[in-house]
Amino acid sequence: MHLLDFGDDARTEAVGEAIGPFADWEWHVDLAEGVVPPEVEDLVAALVDRICDLTEGRPYAAARAASRFERAAASTALMAGRKARSSMMTWEYIGRAFGCGPQEALERFGETLNDDDPGDEA
């Protein structure tokens, strides 16, 4: 339950504190959608380990594999960033997922989207 102060959004949202309806919503999204499934974590770790193993005896093959992994990661990140934004995620939230700030997320993914809300927060 949250007390609403109609006309004072900052007070309702408890700006600067980790309480309020918006903070609860972010917590919910983190739990419901933000956890990377263990099988994905395992696959990425296995791929990284395999590429590292290749560096010992086949460094050129390792470099080619790393290059393919890098390209795949970049295109997958773009797809994920686009989908997150089209799913109404804020730039702040997208930035957090990519380990950057909202402005960097906007610069990275904003040009690829047709954002109809020019007043959206960065």
Can you describe this structure in just a few lines?
The protein has 122 residues and is mostly helical. The chain contains six helices and no strands.
| Overall body shape | elongated
Mean pLDDT: 81
Strand content: under 5%
Major sheet size, sense and barrel closure: none
End-to-end gap: 29 Å
Structural class call reads mainly alpha
H/E series: HHHHHH
Low-confidence regions: 115-122
**Considering DSSP H and I runs of 4 or more, what fraction of the residues is helical?**
55-70%
What is the number of beta strands?
0
Radius of gyration: 19 Å
Contiguous helical run count = 6
Descriptive account of the structure:
- This protein has 6 helices and no strands.
- Helix 3 runs antiparallel to helix 4 and helix 5 crosses helix 6.
- The C terminus is likely disordered.
Give short descriptive properties of this protein:
122 residues; elongated
Chain-wise SSE layout:
Layout: H1 9-13, H2 21-32, H3 38-57, H4 59-86, H5 91-97, H6 102-109
